[in-house]
Amino acid sequence: MRPRHSIAPAFVIALVLGACSGTSGSPATSTPGPSSDGSSAPSVGPSVSSTEPIPSDALDEFVCELPLVENATTPRANISDLRMATHDGYDRVVFEFAQGLPEITLDRATPPFTHDASGMPIEVDGGSFLRLTMRGGTKQTEDGTSSYDGPTDIAGGFPALVHLVEGGDFEAQSTWYFGLTHDACVRILQLTDDGAPRLVIDIEQPGS
Questions:
Q1: Backbone φ, ψ for residue 200 (5° rounding)
Q2: CA separation for the pair 174, 146 (Å, rounded)
Q3: What's the pLDDT score for residue 52?
Q4: How far is CA 208 from the centre of its chain?
Q5: In 3-state terms, what secondary structure has residue 47?
Q6: What CATH code would you report for 43-204?
């Protein structure tokens, strides 16, 4: 597999990603249920064990200067899965797609946050935040169905990543907010050579 990174010219939910050189099991995730005010409560923790076979020697250094940008490999990339896990030194989010990879921008963000389509407020836990914008990356299919029906409001509770929330999926563009414990450095990989196309976002843990 050949990762590509945004600083060169060149994410649950079935949640848990194994470590780069092995697998990692985790407890089940609760399905979000309605709260007393009718809204959905975030799901908690990772659910399904899986493996992301990325060799450690293929991982670049973390980048602290944002934004990071990656180009698309297809005009429309339907989200098919989303996974989260914690590893030694970093927390990981993986978006899996059906066709290819969308154009993405990962940048730091400041509250208040609002839903892209409705303008309704979005609460994101954490002390520092990232915004992932995926142009052409969407769960809306062209025939009006959804390619992904998993949770979109997930409490990570990891050393760096504490919350992941969809900020909107409108006109084939989706936004996701990452609630972090600190102003973390990040690493992006685009995986296209083995299995389904995947966007991998690693978030450096405090003290790593």
A1: -110, 130
A2: 13
A3: 54
A4: 20
A5: coil
A6: 2.60.40.3500
Instruction: Tell me what the pLDDT averaged over the chain comes to.
Output: 80
Q: What is the C-alpha to C-alpha distance for residues 128 and 185, in angstroms, rounded to an integer?
A: 11
Please provide residue 90's backbone torsions phi and psi, each rounded to the nearest 5 degrees.
-155, 155
Q: Give residue 98's identity as a one-letter amino acid code.
A: A
Tokens of 96: 């899996």
The tokens 């979109």 sit on which residue?
152
- Asked whether the beta carbons of 50 and 16 are under 8 A apart, the reply is yes
Radius of gyration of the chain (CA): 16
pLDDT at 56: 56
- Span 16-39, pLDDT tens digits: 333 333 333 333 333 333 333 334
- How many helices and strands, by DSSP H and E, does the chain display? 0, 14
- Which residue type does 145 have? T
Q: Max Cα separation, the chain?
A: 48
Query: 192 in the Ramachandran plot: left (φ > 0), alpha (ψ -120 to 50) or beta?
Result: alpha
User: Any idea which residue has 């992932």 for tokens?
Assistant: 132
- Per-residue exposure over 85-106, b if at least 16 CB sit within 10 Å of its own CB, e if not: bbbeebbbbbbbbbbbbbbbbb
Closest CA to 201 of 11, 14, 18, 54: 11
Length of the chain: 208
Say how far apart CA 9 and CA 114 lie, in whole Å: 31
Asked if residue 53 lies in contact with residue 171, where contact means CB atoms within 8 angstroms, the answer is no
